[in-house]
Amino acid sequence: MNKKVLITGGAGFIGSHVADEFLQHGYHVRALDNLSLLTERCGLKQAARPVHLDPEVELIVGDIRDPETVGRALKGVDAVCHLASAVGANQSMYQLGAYTSINTLGTAVLLDALVHHPVERLVVGSSQIVYGEGLYASPNGTPVHVSERSPCQLQAGEWEVRGENGEALTPIPTTETKPLSLTSIYALSKFDQENMCLMMGRCYGLPTVVLRVFNVYGPRQILLNPYVGVVSVFASRMINNNAPVIYEDGQQLRDFISVHDVAHAFLLALEKEAAPDHIFNIGSGEPTSIRSVAVRLALALGKDQIKLRMAGKHRPYDVRHCFADISQATRLLGYEPRVSLDRGLSEIASWLESQVPYDKLEVAND
User: Fold this and answer.
1) How far apart are CA 256 and CA 290, in angstroms?
2) What is the pTM of this model?
3) CA angle (135 as vertex; 183, 137 as ends), nearest 5
4) Are strands 208-213 and 58-61 parallel, antiparallel or unpaired?
5) Which band of pLDDT confidence, cut at 50, 70 and 90, is reported for residue 222?
6) Number of domains in the chain
7) Among the residues of the chain, which ranges form H helices?
8) Which of 110, 149, 175, 290 lies 20 to 30 Å (CA to CA) from residue 202?
9) What's the rounded mean pLDDT across residues 38-47?
10) What is the CATH number of the domain that holds 250?
11) pLDDT value for 236
12) Which residue range forms the structural domain that includes residue 150?
């Protein structure tokens, strides 16, 4: 196979794993990345090629918002995986310009360039953040779409979502058809990315696939970045012998998915004939509480003597429960998660032995 794939954000956490997956399946890979996570958050004065990026990957260092750079990156490319993005709900609310510029304008620049450099397929990396709260069922089993919990409810420590009449609701797997709830600039920008790409794909006959990735974790997460996910934040605390902080009561349900499974999902989205013009949830399909993942990670790290710190308060922009219904990805892509949570946490523990785990919890809570 001599096809070449461009991965925007291809030197980052998810992007570099996607690059590995493509290389293993015979693709040539080009990555476009501004290396901002390494320069801004690791205190480096000049961008350097990350050591985790496979030497076979052709790296173009540049900005997704620069038309000339994007046009150069697209030359000779057969397909594109778009992963370049600023991440983090909290941070997006005080960096509106940066998030809108990188995520929305950057995607527009890429799509403009694709009009003049058509490719066989575009795969877009989105996020479960667009759902807000997950899907619930009423006492009679009817699916219920809920809104955000009220400030009064949260201040009173009443964590569970309830129906309009105060009835208890049961969290159920979130499907791709659930109405979206955009509660941060980051969520809005991911929604923009999805719709811009699908819209332009239909207009110009460009087969486009959107992957809504749930709580991804794995090696290569930059521990200096406090917005990368709860597993990384917990690991940084524990390695420094600090107690991980659990918000609310720790029973919030999430869907933790290994970056290796995410990378394989991108390969399937690139290759499967049934994929274009669809949005797919990419998760494990298994709900896990925040408290449970903290306990299991502590065991994997040999830090189970560290007691969890229960904050007993809500963190801004957090939802109560959200986990994936992956049946559509299984049916149309043949996607099946292969890495269990315990196996993935063991891999994290091994990888952390060679890392410097800075603890940035306070920054993440800003």
Assistant:
1) 10
2) 0.94
3) 140
4) unpaired
5) confident
6) 1
7) 13-24, 36-40, 67-74, 89-92, 96-99, 106-116, 151-155, 185-204, 230-239, 259-271, 290-301, 327-333, 341-352, 361-364
8) 175
9) 52
10) 3.40.50.720
11) 87
12) 4-364
